[in-house]
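Report of the visiting student (M.T.), summer placement. My assignment was to run the structure pipeline on a short list of targets and document each run. The first record concerns N5-carboxyaminoimidazole ribonucleotide synthase.
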Amino acid sequence: MTQLTLGILGGGQLGMMLAQSALKLGHRCVFLEDTPHAPAGLYGQVYSTQQLDEFVAKSDIFSLEFENTPVATASYLATQKQGIYPPPNALAVAQDRLAEKALFNELDIPTVPYRAVSSLDDLQSACDELGLPLVLKTSRGGYDGKGQYIIKTKDDIATAWQELSDALTEGNLPAPLIAEGFIHFSREVSLIGVRGRTGEVGFYPLVENVHNNGILAKTTAPAPNADTLNQTAQASMKKLLEKLDYVGVLTLELFVSENGLIANEIAPRVHNSGHWTIEGTNTSQFENHVRAVLGLPLGDTGIVKPSVMLNVIGKYPDANELLTHTGVHFHHYHKSERDGRKIGHITVMSDDNDRVVGEVEKLLGCVKPF
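After the run finished, the structure tokens were exported:
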């Protein structure tokens, strides 16, 4: 077997876990990343964006771990060596919430009602048409709850515009804001799918996600009472994978409403809500992404055991206390502690998950269940 070097755009914890899977399969990774002391540097050479030519020279094929990677860079890499997966067009759609919503609508995947907003008058019209409350977001950028403002009353309109209107002219790719109708939903779920270079498709089970201050805090896999929802989500995912001629792991985030599933957004990469698959499935999302990109057969996505994943945010727990619990798997990202920063995750696979998860939440400093 020829050893290949996978060049990954980004060097965070996702790149680190991709590299762990690549090594297991007999391949290696290098990374394009400007952040000092990037976690992925533990597993391969890290090149700065000023060293793009060296990065290309050391790679055989390319992928990414961060959806805000410049599309121009991805498009350039598509012409180099064995190309880049997923394709740049998927990256472009995922980076633009208006284009993303348009794709969902084209494929008959339900979304909230929305309007493009380029002026204060546009915003006032959107509020009249969609009703209040609504969510005003930047159409590009923003993650973990950033880049958005909830407009609850008419008095909030001017403040929301003042907070977010700078995004209309920031950077080289100015874009309208997007106003999204507010929906009442019972829970947030996500589905991870993977498609190989020959068109082979696999799905992980639908999972339930709980966020805290806009940051994913907890994932339960599989999502409880979700058999019908799972089928619907898989049908939507299959449409997306085929329309985008996608290769690799794709994540679809959804809301569960009284009218069924509502698509929120896609992430063209391995995803935080799939970290539990490392121990909880026969083939993790990371290994299947590497397999897909390198043209290898996809692995079995079946569950080994129901799992709960908890993000470690801001401060590390005491590992000595944590690891006394049976069925607990701790992943340290080798990142410094900082408020609001994802620095690790814990997967619980116990015969008594509810109790063990409660104990772990205490160690993480959760005052109450998420």
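The chain has three domains: 5-85, 113-181, 187-364. The CA atoms of residues 18 and 286 lie 5 Å apart. I thank the supervising group for their guidance throughout the placement.
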